Amino acid sequence: MMTSVDTDLIRVLADPLRLRIVTLLARETLCTTHLVEETGAKQTNLSNHMKVLREAGVVDTEPCGRFIYYRLRPEVIEVLAGQFADLAQTARATAEANLKRSCP
């Protein structure tokens, strides 16, 4: 039973704009122009966030002419969801067993 969560990925997804981008990419593959339109972010700011998401392995890129399309990697989200599910299961088992550390 795993009880830890990927804190680096949590930090990446904790940014509100990056979380919005991930939510949009869960629905469809989009290029930078689409993401600028949808989020209202400046293109340079958006590009910086996309770099963070790429480096974290959250998105894949697909060149298409002079545009870059971004696609969410669902398996990354599934792994994180699984880690949270494991954490919840551990917490449930701890609560049911009434496990607590005694105070000195």
Structural features, described:
The protein has 104 residues and is α+β, with helices and mostly antiparallel strands. A hairpin with a 2-residue loop joins strand 2 and strand 3. The protein is 62% helix and 13% strand. The chain is built from five helices and three strands; from the N terminus they run ααβααββα. A three-stranded antiparallel β-sheet has the order 1-3-2.
**Backbone shape:** elongated
| Biggest β-sheet description | 3 strands, antiparallel
**Helix- and strand-based class?**
alpha+beta
Low-confidence stretches: none
Helix and strand topology:
Elements: H1 7-14, H2 16-27, E1 30-31, H3 32-39, H4 43-55, E2 59-64, E3 67-72, H5 74-96
Antiparallel strand pairs: 1-3, 2-3
Brief overview, please?
It is built from five helices and three strands, in the order H-H-E-H-H-E-E-H.
Pick out its properties.
104 residues; 3-stranded antiparallel beta sheet; 3 strands
